[in-house]
Amino acid sequence: MKIDPNSSADLSAQIATAIRDAIVSGDLIVCDRLPSEAELADQFDVSRSTVREALKRLAAQSLIRTQRGAFGGAFVNRLSYPEAYAQQITTSTLLLSMNAVSFDVACEARFALERACAPLSAERRTADHLATMRAEIHRQGQPGLTDEAFCASDVALHRALVDGAQNPVLSYQLAGAVEAMQPLMNMITFTTRSREAIVSLHTRLADALEARDADETARALSDLERYTRELARSVFDARDAARNSACDTPA
Amino acid sequence: MKIDPNSSADLSAQIATAIRDAIVSGDLIVCDRLPSEAELADQFDVSRSTVREALKRLAAQSLIRTQRGAFGGAFVNRLSYPEAYAQQITTSTLLLSMNAVSFDVACEARFALERACAPLSAERRTADHLATMRAEIHRQGQPGLTDEAFCASDVALHRALVDGAQNPVLSYQLAGAVEAMQPLMNMITFTTRSREAIVSLHTRLADALEARDADETARALSDLERYTRELARSVFDARDAARNSACDTPA
DNA sequence: GCCCCGTTAATGTCAGACCTTTAAATGTCT
DNA sequence: AGACATTTAAAGGTCTGACATTAACGGGGC
Hints:
The structure is a homodimer.
Chain A: H1 11-24, H2 37-44, H3 48-60, E1 64-67, E2 73-76, H4 81-98, H5 103-124, H6 127-141, H7 147-163, H8 168-185, H9 192-210, H10 214-236
Antiparallel strand pairs in A: 1-2
Helix pairs in contact in A: 1-3, 2-3, 4-8, 5-7, 5-8, 5-10, 6-7, 6-9, 7-8, 9-10
Chain B binds a DNA duplex through residues 10-12, 36-38, 46-50, 52-53, 55, 66-74.
């Protein structure tokens, strides 16, 4: 592991990259302990602060975890599903919110992905998944629910659908797609009428899953997609022009 | 934005979280300049090094970018698609490689997601996408190709399929699923016979896309999935037992 | 045998200094 | 006046050395 002191890049970034490469390539494996900060500073011939900044970068990506005290240090971290979920959601949310991604594009992607779960979920969903969905549907019918709470419940319902596929990798991938839509959905105001329509579509979805009918599940999702996009179009048409400034990173 | 100096968490982590929240919530928007390191140190009542560690954490997630010199500083970064792709791929790859995710689970997720693209890709793929796929198929038929190059070409082909859907959000989500499989695929040794079978399935896939036949595209993907899993099973059966150590993060 | 306590090796934090980069402001020449 | 060179100040990047805080280990006292 070597760095180039003449490179224009920050030393701490170079060091972080070197260590990250070692982890990704398998030179360092889960549970391995990195040398102490002082030793790393020696090895790379930089100060301890520089090493620390590098380690903080890696910690931010959950690649390492640090432990204080004697026999502490930095350890290669096992990336857990919850951590991966969280990163996935943050990245997806920011990507959508910062790039003026149109509602249509995001919505299309989300429902396409959800439909991918439909056959698996229809086959494998447990009674628990179904119960969660029914509970959320019931909540969505309550009067006096704020738009935000309605959206949150919507997310919970769709996550239950996704989790029904019983494939953690799929759940992980979908978490970003579903959750990242929430801020966009939150811009919509839901009338009583549109809530009723959505609840009815959700019920169709739950019924299809209960009957383990993959095709009907997919159809219900498609109809839900269609309805959501129509609803959004009527709301967004107005304020869609002004966007995209031009500060961005220089050449 | 405040931090709790009595919390057990590192100050730099708390500060990073505070700033991250401000970005995610929209209090800080793209192009905004953060206060200088010295000012932040003042505000949070910590030293400059602590602030710097916090900023490096954010930089590692591409949330901010720093610029040296007068009128430089830390700016809220627009998360670009390439950056998001890269993070997505790193996270997915590590998640798979560190959690003893079974080939079957990963493979199932990947093909389920790809099938989600099938209808869109069949409808929208350009001649370019098709040409890329044909070129990769041709490469895959070349004798003397290493297993690794074969896998890389496989990834390129599948990315073309995904990109054919012309939905950048979908491409972004799928990038992780497709690329993260590569290390797992690399463990497989491909015989001439199995390469021929895969090339033939790839050809069917390309033909289906050329004919804009969504159903046949999905069927070809399903057959490819079935074949891939069979192939993997024969290879992995042996060395699947020993895995999962128990160092991990303490309670 | 068990509990308490010091030792020690780590990370976490701080303070201050200096280097490097960058762009704006100023000055100078044509 | 305009083009070019120079100065300057603000900001991040790095280094040094110190101290604080943790936590596992080992030893002593009961």
